[in-house]
Amino acid sequence: MKGHVFRYLTFIILTQTIVFGQSKNMAYIQGSRYIPLYGRDSTVVEVKDFEMDVFPVTNAQFIEFVKQYPKWQKSKTLKLFTDKSYLYNWKNDSELKDSEKLNSPVTYVSWFAAKDYCECQGKRLPTVDEWEYVAMADESSRDARLKPDYNKQILAWYETPKTNENLIGKNPKNIWGVYDLHGLVWEWTLDFNSVLITGESRKDVDKDSNLFCGSAAVNATDLMNYAAFMRYAIRGSLKAKYSMKNLGFRCVKDINK
Amino acid sequence: MKNQLNYLLLFIPLLLISCFNNQEKNYENTSEIPVSREMTAELTSPPNVPTPVGRRKAKKLIVEMEILEKEGEMTDGVRYVYWTFGGTVPGSFIRTRVGDEVEFHLQNHPDNKLPHNIDLHAVTGPGGGAESSFVAPGHEKVFSFKTLNPGLYVYHCATAPVGMHIANGMYGLILVEPEGGLPLVDKEYYIMQGDFYTKGANGERGLQPFDMQKAVDENADYVVFNGKVGSLTGDNAITAKVGETVRLFVGNGGPGLVSSFHVIGEIFDKVHIEGGNKINENVQTTLIPAGGAAIVEFKVDVPGTFILVDHSIFRAFNKGALGMLKVEGEEDKKIYSGEIRDDIYLPEGPGLQEMPTTNEIVESKIPAKNFDEQMKFGKQVYMQTCFACHQSEGQGVPNAFPPLAKSDYLNADVNRAIGVVLHGLTGEITVNGEKYNSVMTRQMLSSEEIANVLTYVYNSWGNSKKVVTTSMVENVKNKK
Fold first, then answer.
1. Between residues 180 and 239 of chain B, which touch chain A (CB distance below 8 Å)?
2. Architecture of the A25-254 domain
């Protein structure tokens, strides 16, 4: 019953936002067709129009969330949905440790928690294709993957320690108006484990010849592959109940026309 | 008759003993060696090696290896983010014996950004363990394997992009000793070569990110032993005494280059070629493939400093692949006399060696702001350019390279000193009462670097504390 009311409410909110334009703190993403990751002759995927949170979910927002939904408090969650490090940087069920900042991205959250958070806001987690689609933009273009600087910056971030302690919104926003897809934390995606990477990457070469084979000619595409491949590697190493210091999330919303 | 029976009785226990021995020692198939008890493996950071284990029985061996991504120093003033097994490059040395059942715990520290895994070349199984050990930050994976083949093996991370993980330092050695162990020696050390690719050129200061393009081109900025320039020189040199036998476990992590491993002034008595069973004797230089290893042994007969190099020699003197073995003890003039005479030899043709000239030496993008910085940068130049001949404390080398410490020749004339660095010097000079007749080539340094290095020299080791400025160097340069 309660659920019904909730869904009804979100429906109203949804329709209203369409009437009145964009949702608060979300950016409108115009869908398109693109070739994800491996370049060359991978299949084209289609992304429909959607809205994406401008920032990753922060510690402050997650504190509000667990107040409202106590089942996601540190001491009350089910072992099935979280592991031991869930909200490891929290003092108790409602407060961060003193060293942590409210405006940093929330990390140490499991996929289940992230998914539920988004659903409770009337949103959902982005798919890998959606996430990668928005993340391939830089400040001035929708697809910056062929720019060497774009790839170098991302690779440099992958090497910089402790970026999860930074505040949101400090990196430049991309052309969609979305911040921090790179440079802060990894982010959960709805179907994070749908790309089958075994962890034995050299074997993956056999499985999908698009991943590395044929890359005899060295150009920006290869740099791009390296950067993207590291994201696929981290996704491949995860299980839904894991939580990690460098892993947060953000939500998206469908646009019902 | 009775006598015969006695004989037989005597023999029976002998037969029994030999039977037992046979049962214990010779397994046709090493996979059948039984294990007794459980023990935790001793892991050591380079250049140290754990104590021999070949004489103990095969055991269930617990290995706990922690992966750490952390910032370290590549050379003076150059920082780099290393990815490590056990906090060091190369990673901790693992020592096992044939037949051990290794229970491997791979722990990825929660602070780390990336997932990792481990491929041990000593493992018989898919991916060398990589498949079973893919571990996210903040997690631990456990897998086990039996060591079937004795030898010295490389282990490394095999997570995509593999090259990058290796280039950042994720490799090490695992030794599988044969039944009964390797013969005991006096000293054992662990050395591993690796090539590094940084955004800035060799020596460019600051935190240097990994450069994927250079790595793909195999154009290394640093080729080093044990993860950094100078990890085996000066105070970090490995040591031995005259008469001792030294065994080096030498690996090559790559990712790109093979190593022509050589110790200047020594001949390897024995080399386990490529870390396997086959032993070659009397070897000068042994080739160590990327992702391969070798065990070299030699007895040190005379005292002195022996230089370990990759004999692709520019790597040694320009990119860092240089280490030192210091041997103490009595000299043996029969084996090595030292210098006996210094005679004049005048061949035809020019006597002065010259480096190729260029007027395009770029000035540093970050000039020194004050005296302290001049000293700091000057020291870096000194360690890269002058140290090899004039030595770490400016003491020089008797009869060969004049001292810079408390040097009357140096302190007498600053412009002459600038000129020497700019243009080189050849012929006889007298320094502190000693005659030297040698050649110093012109140095490929910018005016600012010369100002810094001379300021450093003048303000060290009891010299006259002059400060040399870039304009002083320019003046001398333009006078010519």
1. 209-210, 212-213, 216-217
2. Alpha-Beta Complex (3.90)
